[in-house]
Amino acid sequence: MLDYSKLSILVVDDQTLVRSLLVPLLKGLGFAADHVHQSVDGLSALRSLNVRAVDVVLCDISMLPLNGLDLLKELRMGRPLATPSNVPFIFLSGHAERHNVELAAGLDADGFVVKPPKPVDIEKALGFALTRPRPAPDPFRYAHIATGSEYDRSHGFRLGEIGPALVLADDACFERARPQSLSDVGQDALLAEDLVSPTGRLLLRRGKRITAAQLAVLRERPERFGVAELVIEDEDAPA
Protein backbone atom coordinates (compact mmCIF):
# COMPACT_ATOMS: atom_id res chain seq x y z
CA MET A 1 0.00 0.00 0.00
CA LEU A 2 1.31 3.46 -0.89
CA ASP A 3 2.53 5.73 1.89
CA TYR A 4 1.29 9.12 0.72
CA SER A 5 2.81 10.87 3.72
CA LYS A 6 6.22 10.72 2.04
CA LEU A 7 5.00 12.01 -1.33
CA SER A 8 4.32 15.49 -2.69
CA ILE A 9 1.62 16.50 -5.16
CA LEU A 10 0.83 19.56 -7.26
CA VAL A 11 -2.85 20.37 -7.85
CA VAL A 12 -3.38 22.59 -10.90
CA ASP A 13 -6.84 24.10 -11.43
CA ASP A 14 -8.10 27.60 -12.13
CA GLN A 15 -11.19 27.06 -9.96
CA THR A 16 -10.67 27.85 -6.29
CA LEU A 17 -13.63 25.65 -5.34
CA VAL A 18 -12.12 22.59 -7.02
CA ARG A 19 -8.77 23.10 -5.29
CA SER A 20 -10.49 23.64 -1.93
CA LEU A 21 -12.27 20.31 -2.35
CA LEU A 22 -9.22 18.39 -3.48
CA VAL A 23 -6.83 19.50 -0.75
CA PRO A 24 -8.75 17.92 2.18
CA LEU A 25 -9.41 14.84 0.05
CA LEU A 26 -5.66 14.40 -0.54
CA LYS A 27 -4.89 15.01 3.13
CA GLY A 28 -7.43 12.31 3.94
CA LEU A 29 -5.47 9.89 1.77
CA GLY A 30 -2.36 10.64 3.82
CA PHE A 31 -0.58 13.48 2.02
CA ALA A 32 1.09 15.85 4.49
CA ALA A 33 -0.38 19.35 4.44
CA ASP A 34 2.90 20.96 3.41
CA HIS A 35 3.32 18.43 0.59
CA VAL A 36 0.11 19.44 -1.18
CA HIS A 37 0.99 22.33 -3.50
CA GLN A 38 -1.37 24.39 -5.65
CA SER A 39 -1.19 26.34 -8.92
CA VAL A 40 -3.94 28.45 -10.42
CA ASP A 41 -3.11 27.66 -14.06
CA GLY A 42 -0.66 25.83 -16.30
CA LEU A 43 1.81 28.67 -16.58
CA SER A 44 2.15 29.11 -12.82
CA ALA A 45 2.49 25.32 -12.53
CA LEU A 46 5.29 25.33 -15.10
CA ARG A 47 7.13 27.97 -13.11
CA SER A 48 6.64 26.02 -9.89
CA LEU A 49 7.88 22.76 -11.42
CA ASN A 50 10.92 24.57 -12.74
CA VAL A 51 12.14 25.17 -9.18
CA ARG A 52 10.51 22.39 -7.14
CA ALA A 53 9.93 18.77 -8.12
CA VAL A 54 6.87 16.82 -6.99
CA ASP A 55 6.02 13.13 -7.11
CA VAL A 56 2.73 13.49 -8.99
CA VAL A 57 0.64 16.16 -10.74
CA LEU A 58 -3.16 16.36 -10.66
CA CYS A 59 -4.26 18.80 -13.34
CA ASP A 60 -7.30 20.36 -15.02
CA ILE A 61 -7.32 20.66 -18.83
CA SER A 62 -9.24 23.83 -19.64
CA MET A 63 -7.09 26.76 -18.42
CA LEU A 64 -5.54 29.92 -19.84
CA PRO A 65 -2.96 30.94 -20.92
CA LEU A 66 -1.45 27.46 -20.66
CA ASN A 67 -3.85 24.52 -20.53
CA GLY A 68 -3.27 21.12 -18.99
CA LEU A 69 -2.33 19.38 -22.24
CA ASP A 70 0.25 22.06 -22.99
CA LEU A 71 1.63 21.72 -19.46
CA LEU A 72 2.01 17.97 -19.87
CA LYS A 73 3.70 18.42 -23.25
CA GLU A 74 6.17 20.91 -21.74
CA LEU A 75 6.88 18.45 -18.93
CA ARG A 76 7.38 15.49 -21.23
CA MET A 77 9.78 17.53 -23.36
CA GLY A 78 11.92 18.21 -20.29
CA ARG A 79 11.36 21.93 -19.97
CA PRO A 80 10.95 22.37 -16.20
CA LEU A 81 14.51 21.53 -15.17
CA ALA A 82 13.74 20.62 -11.54
CA THR A 83 11.09 18.04 -12.39
CA PRO A 84 11.68 14.68 -14.13
CA SER A 85 10.07 14.71 -17.57
CA ASN A 86 8.32 11.40 -16.86
CA VAL A 87 6.68 12.54 -13.61
CA PRO A 88 3.29 10.84 -12.98
CA PHE A 89 0.52 13.08 -14.36
CA ILE A 90 -3.24 12.71 -13.93
CA PHE A 91 -5.91 14.79 -15.63
CA LEU A 92 -8.94 15.93 -13.68
CA SER A 93 -11.42 17.47 -16.08
CA GLY A 94 -15.01 17.87 -17.15
CA HIS A 95 -13.82 17.76 -20.76
CA ALA A 96 -13.51 14.04 -21.38
CA GLU A 97 -14.02 14.31 -25.13
CA ARG A 98 -12.31 11.64 -27.22
CA HIS A 99 -9.87 14.18 -28.69
CA ASN A 100 -8.64 15.21 -25.25
CA VAL A 101 -8.33 11.62 -24.04
CA GLU A 102 -6.33 10.64 -27.15
CA LEU A 103 -3.99 13.63 -26.78
CA ALA A 104 -3.51 12.79 -23.11
CA ALA A 105 -2.62 9.20 -24.01
CA GLY A 106 -0.18 10.38 -26.69
CA LEU A 107 1.57 12.52 -24.09
CA ASP A 108 1.75 9.55 -21.69
CA ALA A 109 -0.74 10.85 -19.14
CA ASP A 110 -1.24 8.37 -16.32
CA GLY A 111 -4.95 8.83 -15.77
CA PHE A 112 -8.08 10.78 -16.65
CA VAL A 113 -10.58 11.44 -13.86
CA VAL A 114 -13.86 13.07 -14.86
CA LYS A 115 -15.24 15.96 -12.79
CA PRO A 116 -16.85 16.02 -10.34
CA PRO A 117 -14.41 13.45 -8.96
CA LYS A 118 -15.22 10.77 -6.46
CA PRO A 119 -12.62 10.14 -3.74
CA VAL A 120 -12.39 6.50 -4.80
CA ASP A 121 -11.60 7.56 -8.38
CA ILE A 122 -8.83 9.90 -7.23
CA GLU A 123 -7.32 7.22 -5.02
CA LYS A 124 -7.48 4.61 -7.79
CA ALA A 125 -5.87 6.98 -10.32
CA LEU A 126 -3.08 7.92 -7.90
CA GLY A 127 -2.38 4.30 -7.09
CA PHE A 128 -2.07 3.40 -10.77
CA ALA A 129 0.02 6.44 -11.69
CA LEU A 130 2.50 5.99 -8.86
CA THR A 131 3.09 2.28 -9.40
CA ARG A 132 3.10 1.78 -13.17
CA PRO A 133 6.41 1.76 -15.11
CA ARG A 134 7.49 5.24 -16.12
CA PRO A 135 7.96 6.16 -19.80
CA ALA A 136 11.61 6.57 -20.76
CA PRO A 137 12.68 10.25 -20.82
CA ASP A 138 12.72 11.34 -24.46
CA PRO A 139 11.95 15.02 -25.15
CA PHE A 140 11.96 14.39 -28.91
CA ARG A 141 9.09 11.93 -28.77
CA TYR A 142 6.43 14.51 -27.96
CA ALA A 143 7.59 17.53 -29.95
CA HIS A 144 5.31 16.95 -32.93
CA ILE A 145 2.11 16.26 -30.97
CA ALA A 146 -0.09 19.30 -31.62
CA THR A 147 -2.45 20.13 -28.77
CA GLY A 148 -4.36 22.56 -30.98
CA SER A 149 -4.12 25.45 -28.52
CA GLU A 150 -3.05 28.99 -29.30
CA TYR A 151 -0.12 28.53 -26.90
CA ASP A 152 1.11 25.47 -28.77
CA ARG A 153 0.70 27.12 -32.18
CA SER A 154 2.54 30.28 -31.16
CA HIS A 155 5.25 28.75 -28.98
CA GLY A 156 6.14 25.49 -30.71
CA PHE A 157 9.51 24.47 -29.28
CA ARG A 158 9.76 27.55 -27.11
CA LEU A 159 9.97 27.71 -23.35
CA GLY A 160 7.34 30.37 -22.90
CA GLU A 161 8.42 32.93 -20.31
CA ILE A 162 10.93 30.61 -18.69
CA GLY A 163 13.69 30.47 -21.25
CA PRO A 164 14.97 31.14 -24.77
CA ALA A 165 12.71 31.10 -27.77
CA LEU A 166 13.40 31.14 -31.49
CA VAL A 167 11.56 29.49 -34.36
CA LEU A 168 12.75 30.33 -37.88
CA ALA A 169 11.08 29.74 -41.20
CA ASP A 170 11.81 26.40 -42.84
CA ASP A 171 13.59 28.17 -45.72
CA ALA A 172 15.97 30.07 -43.42
CA CYS A 173 19.43 30.50 -44.95
CA PHE A 174 22.42 29.58 -42.80
CA GLU A 175 25.71 30.96 -44.09
CA ARG A 176 27.94 30.14 -41.11
CA ALA A 177 26.92 26.55 -40.54
CA ARG A 178 29.52 24.14 -39.21
CA PRO A 179 29.52 20.64 -37.72
CA GLN A 180 30.29 20.48 -34.01
CA SER A 181 30.86 17.56 -31.71
CA LEU A 182 27.87 16.84 -29.49
CA SER A 183 30.05 17.15 -26.41
CA ASP A 184 30.97 20.73 -27.40
CA VAL A 185 27.52 21.98 -28.36
CA GLY A 186 26.11 24.51 -25.95
CA GLN A 187 22.57 24.99 -24.77
CA ASP A 188 20.43 27.09 -27.18
CA ALA A 189 22.67 26.34 -30.17
CA LEU A 190 20.84 27.07 -33.43
CA LEU A 191 20.46 24.04 -35.70
CA ALA A 192 21.46 24.74 -39.30
CA GLU A 193 20.43 21.27 -40.49
CA ASP A 194 17.65 18.89 -39.46
CA LEU A 195 18.69 16.65 -36.59
CA VAL A 196 18.06 13.10 -37.79
CA SER A 197 18.91 9.81 -36.11
CA PRO A 198 20.83 7.09 -38.01
CA THR A 199 17.50 5.26 -38.49
CA GLY A 200 16.06 8.28 -40.29
CA ARG A 201 13.93 9.55 -37.43
CA LEU A 202 13.52 13.33 -37.46
CA LEU A 203 14.39 14.56 -33.98
CA LEU A 204 14.44 18.33 -34.43
CA ARG A 205 14.02 20.61 -37.44
CA ARG A 206 16.57 23.14 -38.63
CA GLY A 207 16.03 26.63 -37.32
CA LYS A 208 15.30 25.45 -33.77
CA ARG A 209 17.40 26.05 -30.69
CA ILE A 210 18.32 22.87 -28.88
CA THR A 211 17.45 22.82 -25.17
CA ALA A 212 19.49 21.61 -22.22
CA ALA A 213 17.11 18.67 -21.76
CA GLN A 214 17.50 17.60 -25.38
CA LEU A 215 21.29 17.83 -25.21
CA ALA A 216 21.33 15.80 -21.99
CA VAL A 217 19.27 13.01 -23.54
CA LEU A 218 21.41 12.89 -26.69
CA ARG A 219 24.58 12.64 -24.59
CA GLU A 220 23.23 10.16 -22.04
CA ARG A 221 21.54 7.81 -24.51
CA PRO A 222 23.90 7.34 -27.49
CA GLU A 223 22.59 3.81 -27.99
CA ARG A 224 19.11 5.19 -28.70
CA PHE A 225 19.84 8.26 -30.80
CA GLY A 226 23.29 7.66 -32.27
CA VAL A 227 24.04 11.37 -32.64
CA ALA A 228 27.74 12.31 -32.46
CA GLU A 229 27.65 15.81 -33.90
CA LEU A 230 25.27 18.62 -34.84
CA VAL A 231 25.43 21.15 -37.65
CA ILE A 232 24.93 24.50 -35.99
CA GLU A 233 24.96 28.14 -37.05
CA ASP A 234 28.06 29.86 -35.70
CA GLU A 235 26.41 33.05 -34.54
CA ASP A 236 29.70 34.47 -33.25
CA ALA A 237 31.49 34.21 -36.58
CA PRO A 238 31.77 37.35 -38.74
CA ALA A 239 28.86 37.73 -41.15
Topology:
Layout: E1 9-12, H1 16-29, E2 36-39, H2 42-49, E3 56-59, H3 68-76, E4 89-93, H4 98-106, E5 111-114, H5 119-129, H6 150-155, E6 177-181, E7 195-196, E8 202-204, H7 212-220, H8 222-225, E9 229-233
- CATH homologous superfamily title of the largest domain: Response regulator
Number of helices: 8
**Number of E-type strands:** 9
The CATH class label of the largest domain is: Alpha Beta
The largest sheet has its strands arranged as 2-1-3-4-5
Report the oligomer. single chain
**What CATH architecture of the largest domain would you give?**
3-Layer(aba) Sandwich
Biggest sheet: strands, sense, closure?
5 strands, parallel
Radius of gyration, rounded?
A: 19 Å
What is the mean pLDDT?
86
The end-to-end distance, rounded to whole angstroms, is: 63 Å
**Strand residue percentage:** 15-25%
Please estimate the helix content: 25-40%
Spans of at least 5 consecutive residues with low confidence: 157-171
Keywords: DNA-binding, Phosphoprotein, Transcription, Transcription regulation, Two-component regulatory system
Organism: Crenobacter cavernae
Domain Response regulatory: 8-130
GO molecular function, one term: phosphorelay response regulator activity
